[in-house]
Write a structure and sequence with these properties.
Length: about 350
Amino acid sequence: MDGLINGLYGIPLLGILVQFVGYIVHIVPDISPLLLQAATPLALGALCGVICERSGVVNIGIEGTMLASAFVAWIVGVTVAPLLPADPSPIFGITPTLLIALVAALLTALLISLVHAWLSITVRADQIISGTIINIAAFGVTGYLFQLIEKGSPTSAGAFTAFTPPSQLVQIPLVGWIFNMFLNQGPIAMSVIVIVIVMQVLLFRSRWGLRTRAVGEHPRAAETVGIDVVRLRYRNVLAGGLLAGLAGAFLTMEASNSFQTAMTQGRGFIALAAMIIGRWTPLGALGAALLFSSSQAIAQSITFAPPGGDLGTILTAIPAQGYDMLPYLVTIIVVAGLIGRSIPPAADGQPYEREAAT
């Protein structure tokens, strides 16, 4: 067997490819927690898009919602931290400060989503423009406020800590690394799989899900059978906003304990791509988010633990900027390959106006 592998390694080009596949198989179990960690904001943002677009409302303001929520979570945390006890609990390192900051992030996302819902549903403004306004405003306001506040050098409010799964569980052959991926996480990342499963069941096995899909496909027909299209769209846009706010809170409360200007780095737009690739389903969105995050995690592993041999020589010769753009390059390639194959809900992006009573 070793002779066969060594023979494959010796074949030009094909040998390098075989070495790369072998490197990925070897490294994935070790970086599995990083996979879910990198996928968490993408998956939550994609779930926001699923709820909104299944209702017929396009929301490209996910990026701005995430960024604003991340900023508010950070600034509320550093403001409240000196006033409250700082002793973290043994589970996830939870403190009153972190809980208050999390609630503030969710309320911020709820307010932004309410603005988007009002513009898109009540005013019937162009939904793309509404989302663009949210993104531009979030980048501008958070960047400006951060420059002002940063001069005061506020202290960190801390962050949620990861749960440590039992060693007996993560050492199970073949599947132990999967348990490690989903359990060696903080509370927000760990909640992603639960949220995805619940949403998948509700969207396709509940009355709310049936009504949501009906409103997204044919709102006028849904209205004739007694579904309040406007009310349902409002509720779903607000619910989606909470998920985007949770993604933003993850960036400053779990992935790190600080805020940086434009720290979302396009994750909201990659989340929209994950939604499209996942065909507007929660499970599909999670799978696409893991696909995109794997490119980021593998790039990090190459930087810190490159493979040996010719493959390592080639990969280490690539500048760091090349690995930084890898997730975006993978997104473009995958989305381009699915153009025309993923069909959105029929009424997606179409404003709805009730017929006047006669």
